[in-house]
């Protein structure tokens, strides 16, 4: 895939490097949404077919997850085959060490993303844009880079339902000090909530409204396609709030792509 001729503004001014996090739009990432319109449809179609989280089937959370490996010295990006799974066909292990208080030190097996997405041009462009925000770190220059690709939907059908992310508190994703997490909104319709919060590392495990003054760096909602953010994991904590049904007719749904980046070793 052809790379942009010049780094987008958010890369040039080093927001993630400078502050430990950055809010990122499609323009910040150097992504021309019209060029990738068909590929965007492919991603959103995949989000409509996400299975329930196998570890929390009543949380109204749906997800798929796969690993890829990036070689910085060649630019190659290759997906790692998932393990055979009786329910999902193939599944990939997801490990957050002790940084997820709901599943401490648990190796969860999550259904893989569809193989058809391995060739999705927009997905690859987003991953490479995220890598551009992370590869200033020397620890990522001379080792294979682990890329976790996560599709997550929070969906509700009536006003009694609440859809929650995991963990439902400020957290870090753990693993290496060279871990980064990026989020890109794929769809949001007829929902309330889903606020994103970025706070100090010490805030992990707490709710945003319980924090002392100065602990919260930013609070915002992702509303437009490909709106998102990136965090250098060890320098901040992050959170997304529960989702409830909005005022329009029909179901409510918030769909997002999460890209995790770390040196290739167990722990992402």
SSE arrangement:
Blueprint: H1 9-12, H2 15-19, E1 21-24, H3 37-48, E2 61-71, E3 76-79, E4 83-85, E5 89-95, E6 107-111, H4 121-134, E7 145-156, E8 180-189, E9 191-193, E10 196-199, E11 216-220, E12 228-232, E13 237-240, E14 243-245, E15 252-263
Antiparallel strand pairs: 1-12, 2-3, 2-7, 4-5, 5-6, 7-15, 8-12, 8-15, 9-14, 10-11, 10-13
Averaging pLDDT over every residue, what do you get?
Answer: 90
* Count of alpha and pi helical runs: 4
What characterizes the major β-sheet? 7 strands, antiparallel
Write down the Rg. Answer: 17 Å
In terms of DSSP E residues, the strand content is: 25-35%
What does this structure look like?
The N terminus is likely disordered. The two termini are 26 Å apart. The protein has one domain: q2cbj1_9rhob like domain (Jelly Rolls), CATH 2.60.120. It is mainly beta. Helices cover 13% and strands 34% of the residues.
List keywords for this structure.
Jelly Rolls, 268 residues, mainly beta, single chain, globular, 2OG-Fe dioxygenase family protein
Concise summary:
With 268 residues, this protein is mainly beta. It has four helices and 15 strands.
